[in-house]
Amino acid sequence: KIINLNDAKIAHAAALKGKPGIICIAGTGSIVLGKNENNDYYRNYDFFQNANAAARMLTYDLVHHILAGHQDESDKPIISLLLQHFDCADLPSFYQLATHGYHLDSQTRDQHFGDFAKYITQETKNGSHLCMNVCNQVAKNILTGIEIVSSTFTSKTIPVALIGSVANDDYIKNKIIELLPSQFIFQENKNDPEQGAIILGLE
User: Does the global pTM surpass 0.85?
Assistant: First the structure.
């Protein structure tokens, strides 16, 4: 799901008080949106970059690693949760389910995968190597989107804010902050979207 540009502009105005900077929204959908010094807006999608940071994408990535056999002992709890979520007795039955598209239409499947993402971020705290790898990759993808959009700015310092359940998960947020080059100034997003609509309306 690509987030509506107008909704993203409102979120940008709310997070950065109408000033230039870059936001990443990652939850049900994902987008990186920048507003530069000329008040021009650019998205990561304008450069054909997809951060793959929507909740469902975390689960798809995890499942692909499991299907490929990349798991180890640290991943047993998340695999157990995954089998419960898909009502499978064991991994062979899950593999079989996967070969049949999980017996779900695409919209229901995406929602079912998205609903599981909270367990992935939860299990990073319990040491699951696969979950940490998935979340590390999401953080890197978001950072790449931010850096691409930043190429449209002239300023030496650029404010950055994160919005949404995935982007603001403690593990992913801290990883993004850790990876951010010094030109980016992280700002906590504390503003209400209604304020963003008001700010945008006054421009």
Answer: yes
